[in-house]
Design brief:
With about 500 residues, this protein is of the alpha+beta class. It contains 13 helices and 22 strands. The chain folds into two domains: about 250 residues, Rossmann fold (3-Layer(aba) Sandwich); about 240 residues, paralog of FGE (formylglycine-generating enzyme), CATH 3.90.1580. It is elongated, with a radius of gyration of 25 Å.
């Protein structure tokens, strides 16, 4: 087919316009956060609450739709690496938030956050052995987000004996909101519980519906001031333009409410393995398949007879690399996209089964790949169309696919979750299911099939994959779309997520 130059130019500029609009949509929706808690210092006082405070803040932000990078007891190198990663992710966000709990100091009017391996004997050594707060703020400003928030529960006492207590006032908060646990030059108190007084009260007020950020911190200031009998008063520095709400119930898709409707098992990080965050999927019936798609027809009624938990996120490199380290299994290539919380790729169906078996043995629980019926049931969330969120006009809010992913996968959880709290069910990476591929009408054991039990045939090597990927078209990432690959194949667009039997 021949096209004239005018038509080609029209298609070119139309594509550019579409990409611009899609990018604008992405920037207008996403929330990302970097949360760090440092407590077990090597060369200064060990602190009681920072890790508990950071974990509480992490969970609270996740419930409110934030993608959270979370770190505990970080070295200076790890803090800098975390900030670099946060800077990259923030470029695709509308709101970025930095939270730090631990030692912080002021030297010559500048504030520094102390790593657990910081060894400081004089003021002159601080800038070489701690993370400058100005580096954090500059990094956030360069991302050009609509809203930048820094929260510091770091107003500790004179930890090295070289300078005065507390932090210096924050200068030039242009377009930012900055919060200290105490006034500049003053210290904060841990309190009697497992959380510090500031963070405990802050979280309480974040959870109140329809409070803008200024009101959240005003109430927090009042609560802390009363609880400490006028000994501690949090301070804020703000030049925000517009309003920001942590919890806004009149939004059409309030993530916190939807997530709280379901039972969550939080992520558990052990020294040698990680148990993923899981959400309870209640048993029920649904119409599986699509009569308009020959691969997914005929549509048929399936009854999921037992509750199960499904991983909130696709398995990440961080999780899988621990498996490789523990077992000697060869690490899969990340194809240059990065590791840690990047969605896992380049693993076969056989690799996925070995990982599930290993994690089950480590945790003494029963993890496995989902059957494709379980996968589709969790993707549909009681809906009948191609997508759980309605029509394709909203797809950019929920999925990384060919039109917005720039031909590469992303860290897990950057898009909106579906109504049952599951991220990346559409796009990012395709996901192995337990089943062999067979057309629905050819399944011999129809009774098992109609109960959502995986179809297994040792004589077949083609295994089901679901969900589409970053390189899939919009109509290739729907709830009923079926694909398959050889069980030993690896691909830079295929990963997996797990289920857990209660």
């Amino acid at each position: 087919m021949q096209y004239n130059n005018g038509y080609i130019m029209y298609k070119y500029f139309k594509t550019l316009l579409l990409l611009f609009l899609l990018q604008f949509t992405l920037l207008a929706q996403d929330r990302v956060a970097l949360v760090i808690g440092n407590a077990n210092y090597l060369y200064s006082d060990v602190l009681k609450n920072p890790i508990n405070d950071a974990a509480l803040m992490r969970d609270t932000l996740k419930e409110r739709g934030f993608f959270v990078l979370y770190y505990e007891d970080t070295s200076l190198a790890e803090m800098k690496k975390a900030l670099t990663k946060f800077s990259k992710i923030s470029k695709d966000a509308k709101t970025s938030l930095f939270y730090y709990a631990g030692h912080g100091i002021e030297v010559r009017g500048k504030n520094y956050l102390i790593a657990i391996d910081s060894k400081i004997t004089s003021d002159s050594e601080v800038k070489y052995n701690a993370l400058s707060l100005s580096n954090v703020s500059v990094s956030m400003k360069q991302a050009l987000n609509d809203t930048n928030i820094i929260i510091l529960d770091a107003c500790r006492s004179n930890l090295f004996g070289t300078h005065k207590n507390g932090l210096a006032p924050f200068s030039n908060p242009d377009g930012m909101f900055i919060a200290y646990a105490a006034q500049a030059g003053e210290v904060s108190y841990d309190g009697e519980g497992k959380n510090g007084i500031f963070t405990a009260n802050l979280v309480k007020n974040i959870k109140v519906d329809n409070l803008n950020i200024e009101e959240v911190f005003k109430r927090t200031r009042e609560d802390v001031y009363k609880e400490t009998i006028a000994q501690q008063r949090p301070s804020t520095y703000s030049e925000l333009i517009g309003s920001f709400y942590f919890t806004k119930t009149d939004e059409k898709s309030t993530r916190a409410i939807k997530r709280n409707q379901h039972q969550i098992i939080e992520v558990k990080k052990h020294k040698r393995y990680i148990e993923p965050q899981m959400v309870l999927i209640k048993k029920g019936t649904f119409m599986m398949g699509d009569n308009d798609d020959i691969e997914a027809s005929p549509q048929h009624k399936v009854e999921i007879k037992k509750d199960f938990y499904m991983a909130v996120h696709e398995i990440s490199f961080e999780e899988y690399d621990l498996f490789c380290k523990d077992t000697g299994h060869k690490k899969p290539s990340d194809s240059g996209y990065g590791r840690e919380q990047q969605a896992l790729i380049n693993v076969s169906h056989h690799d996925a089964l070995e990982y599930a078996h290993w994690l089950s043995k480590k945790s003494k629980k029963s993890y496995s790949l989902p059957s494709e019926a379980q996968w589709e049931y969790a993707a549909r969330t009681d809906t009948q169309g191609s997508y759980s969120f309605g029509n394709e006009n909203k797809i950019d809010l929920y999925a990384w696919y060919s039109d917005n992913a720039k031909n590469h996968p992303y860290p897990v959880g950057l898009k909106r979750p579906n109504p049952w709290g599951l991220y990346d069910m559409y796009g990012n990476v395709k996901e192995w299911c337990l089943d062999n591929r067979v057309q629905y009408h050819k399944i011999k054991d129809q009774k098992s099939s109609l109960q959502g039990i995986a179809y297994l045939d040792e004589n077949r090597d083609e295994m089901i994959i679901r969900g589409g990927a970053y390189n899939s078209e919009y109509d290739e990432v729907g709830s009923s779309i079926r694909e398959s690959e050889n069980r030993y194949s690896i691909s830079r667009d295929i990963g997996f997520r797990l289920i857990l039997e209660p």
